[in-house]
Design brief:
Blueprint (H helix, E strand, L loop, with lengths): L8 H20 L4 E2 H10 L22 H4 L1 H15 L6 E5 L5 H12 L7 E4 L3 H14 L7 E4 L7 E8 L8 E5 L4 E9 L2 E8 L4 H12 L6 E5 L3 H11 E13 L1 H4 L10 E4 L2 E3 L10 E3 L2 E2 H10 L3 E7 H7 L2 H6 L7 H14 L8 E8 L18
Parallel strand pairs: 2-3, 2-5, 3-4, 5-10, 10-14
Antiparallel strand pairs: 1-7, 6-7, 6-9, 7-8, 10-16, 11-12, 11-13, 15-16
Helix pairs in contact: 4-5, 8-10
Length: about 400
């Protein structure tokens, strides 16, 4: 880890306070906690977790850049998919999960306003008080006349939601279990205290869900002994809860990941767990609790299976590149002006990052889940990849 920039003394104090809290929970649990619990504490402990503390996370001055931070083209394209639902009889609302800096909300509302297709309300479900404040400031700065449409939630709305639910880079931040296949049995990674830090402790997978799921994965994908990966046990109950609220409309999920046969491929025998700190990626989640993002790629086959089990239809699945092109990315570029203008060149460079295979174009996928919706959803007609799930 010598290549990582050293945190400030103030940041290290916050991390040490969170580490003390985690060590206390480890002690109360008998010496170890599941990695999923450790990840949850690192990311979401109020006031101390990565997404709850006050450090800048998004953009050039943070730890990573999301598509909305990169370019307004992303949000403007997504607005086309949203509009297809909101223009239907009865209209509807829009709910964004985990709105980050608020940049996507600004771009979506701005484009929907230009299309004369605003939602009844724009809900933001946000766990972080600090990010909620940033979102409010961004909307006040860019769209003060639409601020009264925005409602912040700390839980899912009541049943009967109609409209669009949107989650951009949300699933990758859900807590996962890390496992290893020995060739005949599954082992899970727990976290235990070691001095002022933490270390891994491996235990046999518990009977029931852990053992059954991992054993099925190992059998289905011919995992070699020592294969390490992750499984998201929180995904199915989360999708069930969201589906229970959705009466009619679209749930649009955008994230980096793979269909299951690629997720558990031999090429990824060390798993997909990754940490991000000041635009540097590494694989040690036990370092500096609360100061770095911890993520895992998304198993989109698991998303589709959970959606169907919850009574949703899988309306489309494709790469981010094909999704944005199908939503009119080329047309938005043409609006930037002549192809030799500075603004066109700037937006063209942003578009390349969004759609090129070596950038975000193929790494990120989009999946559309619907209920009681007859409209075709822009984004999925050019390249429908549902057969690969």
């Amino acid at each position: 880890m010598s290549k990582l920039p050293a945190p400030s003394s103030q940041a290290l104090e916050v991390s040490a306070e969170l580490a003390r809290l985690i060590r206390k929970e480890i002690e109360q649990a008998g010496g170890a906690i599941p990695f999923s619990r450790y990840m949850e504490l690192c990311l979401y402990t109020p006031g101390l977790g990565y997404y709850s503390a006050g450090r800048q996370k998004f953009g050039p001055g943070g730890d990573f850049v999301t598509a909305p931070e990169l370019s307004s083209l992303f949000g403007r394209c997504l607005a086309r998919s949203c509009a297809a639902v909101l223009e239907a009889p009865g209209g509807g609302d829009l709910l964004e999960f985990g709105a980050g800096s608020g940049r996507l909300a600004v771009d979506l509302l701005g484009e929907l306003s230009a299309m004369n297709c605003l939602p009844g309300r724009y809900f933001i479900l946000e766990r972080s008080a600090e990010l909620k404040q940033r979102q409010q400031e961004a909307l006040q700065r860019h769209l003060p006349h639409l601020l009264d449409k925005v409602v912040w939630l700390d839980r899912l709305p009541d049943n009967g939601f109609r409209g669009v639910m949107l989650a951009n880079e949300v699933l990758d931040a859900m807590s996962v279990e890390r496992f290893r296949w020995t060739g005949s049995a599954a082992e899970c990674f727990d976290v235990t205290a070691a001095g002022n830090g933490f270390e891994w402790r491996v235990r046999p997978a518990s009977t029931g869900r852990e053992q059954d799921v991992i054993q099925a994965l190992a059998a289905g994908y011919d995992m070699a002994p020592g294969f390490v990966s992750e499984v998201n046990f929180a995904l199915r109950p989360w999708l069930r809860a969201v589906a229970d609220v959705l009466e009619s409309g679209l749930l649009l999920l955008v994230d980096y990941g793979y269909p299951r046969h690629e997720y558990y491929h031999a090429q990824r025998s060390a798993g997909t767990l990754m940490c991000h700190y000041q635009h540097r990626a590494h694989d040690d989640p036990l370092l500096w609790p609360g100061l770095q993002d911890i993520t895992a790629h998304v198993d989109f086959t698991a998303v589709a299976e959970a959606a169907v089990a919850a009574g949703l239809d899988v309306a489309g699945y494709t790469t981010q590149a094909w999704f944005l092109l199908d939503c009119g990315l080329d047309g938005f570029l043409q609006q930037a002006g002549p192809t030799d203008s500075v603004e066109y060149m700037r937006q063209a460079q942003q578009a390349k990052t969004l759609i090129l295979p070596g950038e975000m174009g193929e790494r990120f996928k989009c999946i559309g889940l619907t209920r009681n919706l007859e409209q075709d959803i822009p984004g999925f007609s050019m390249q429908d990849m549902r057969a690969r799930l």
